[in-house]
Specification:
Radius of gyration: 43 Å
Structural class: alpha+beta
Shape: rod-shaped
Oligomer: single chain
Largest sheet: 5 strands, mixed
Distance between the termini: 68 Å
Number of strands: 5
Strand content: 5-15%
Number of domains: 2
Helix content: 55-70%
Length: 389
């Protein structure tokens, strides 16, 4: 099966044709480089034609072209010689360093440099005249100079390609970082919005359902009072959140993050919404990220208890031991006769995400106890991770 050579580049065809025509013109004019050689006449055109044909392979087969071209250059020295043949050989040497394999690009300057030094020393030792240095100079111009130039151009071209690839990779990584930052910020905003507003909306939904289902003016009035209170507080929380997200808002100072000192007020609000809540805390100074996560977990747990828990006592416990803060909220678990607010599961997802961001452990589910089955939310928040965050 015949092997088809790759199609030569258009520029290489132009170089080959131009070189052949220029060499033929110099031959017709009788211009040679080696007058008086033993092989006169049209024999000078043979190395010229071979070198012109090799120009077609300067990109596709550069190493083979320079090897055959070396033989053609030596053969040209036994004719009257053509400067065009020598010039095309320098182009083949340049192309071999530029388009050849990386190993060839490294070897060619070294090899041609050694050949140049060897030829110079050899002719100086043989002729023992200063003019012999010109032979070494010409050898360096014909072989070493184009090889070194091609290797240098290749190095800068590869460096430019590497820099462009690195820039593309940097841009890609920056885009990935930006996308991840946007996703993380959207998740944080979703958690904050859910934790800040869901408690009030759940209370509104439950008390409005109670007011509609019970035909008791006093109960309806109390429910409306709770609804109004939670509506005002929820609206205030929403305005503060919008003030954080919008630079053009009227809030000139950012809202302070809630702390564990506000748990008493949080529990009192839950009691006002009808929950029987007890609070038991035992902790010292807590890092701010851990404090915020603990507050939000308690807040969301009370919201879930308001929406889903059976009548009974809800217990909130915070204990700091062995470099971590344990947050535990238990509420009665079972069928509920009264009105129930719908849930989407986003609260549990948000609590788990807050815990995992701090490197802690989170669990939520029914548990058996001396008082019956309870729904327990437990989060263990490492203080070291929280401090570093």
């Amino acid at each position: 099966m015949a092997v088809r050579l790759p199609r030569p580049h258009r520029f290489d065809v132009c170089v080959a044709v131009t070189g052949l025509l220029c060499g033929a013109l110099l031959w017709a004019l009788g211009l040679y480089t080696n007058s008086g050689r033993a092989v006169p006449g049209a024999w000078v055109l043979v190395p010229l034609a071979v070198m012109s044909a090799l120009e077609l392979l300067r990109r596709t087969r550069p190493q083979a072209a320079v090897c055959v071209g070396t033989v053609a250059l030596v053969a040209d020295q036994f004719t009257r010689g053509s400067i065009v043949t020598v010039t095309m050989y320098t182009d083949l040497m340049y192309a071999a360093a530029l388009y050849g394999t990386p190993a060839a690009a490294r070897r060619l300057p070294v090899t041609t440099g050694l050949v140049t030094v060897a030829v110079t020393i050899g002719f100086v030792a043989w002729w023992q005249v200063p003019e012999a240095l010109l032979i070494g100079f010409v050898t360096g111009v014909v072989s070493f100079a184009p090889a070194a130039t091609g290797a240098l151009v290749r190095y800068h071209r590869d460096a430019a390609d590497t820099a462009r690839l690195r820039a593309e990779q940097t841009a890609l990584l920056a885009e990935l970082d930006r996308s991840q930052a946007v996703v993380a910020e959207r998740a944080r905003m979703a958690r904050e919005l859910h934790d800040m507003v869901a408690n009030h909306l759940s209370a509104i939904a439950i008390h409005s359902t109670a007011a509609l289902s019970l035909d008791d003016p006093r109960t309806s009035r109390e429910a409306l009072g709770v609804i109004r209170e939670n509506s005002v507080e929820g609206l205030a929380e929403m305005r503060r959140l919008i003030g954080i997200l919008r630079d053009s808002s009227g809030d000139v100072e950012p809202a302070a993050a809630p702390t564990l000192d506000g748990l008493d007020s949080l529990v009192e609000g839950a009691r006002g919404n009808g929950l029987d809540v007890t609070l038991d805390t035992d902790h010292d100074r807590i890092p701010t990220p851990v404090e915020l996560a603990a507050y939000r977990i308690v807040q969301e747990s009370l919201t879930n208890a308001l929406k889903h828990a059976c009548p009974g006592r809800v217990t909130v416990r915070l204990a700091q031991r062995n470099g971590s803060l344990t947050v535990e909220v238990t509420s009665p678990y079972g069928d509920r006769d009264g009105p129930r607010a719908p849930g989407s599961g986003a609260g549990l997802i948000g609590m788990r995400e807050r815990t995992e961001l701090l490197g802690g452990d989170f669990a939520a589910g029914p548990e058996s106890s001396a008082d019956g089955t309870t729904w327990t939310v437990r989060a263990v928040l490492p203080l070291t991770e929280g401090d570093s965050a």
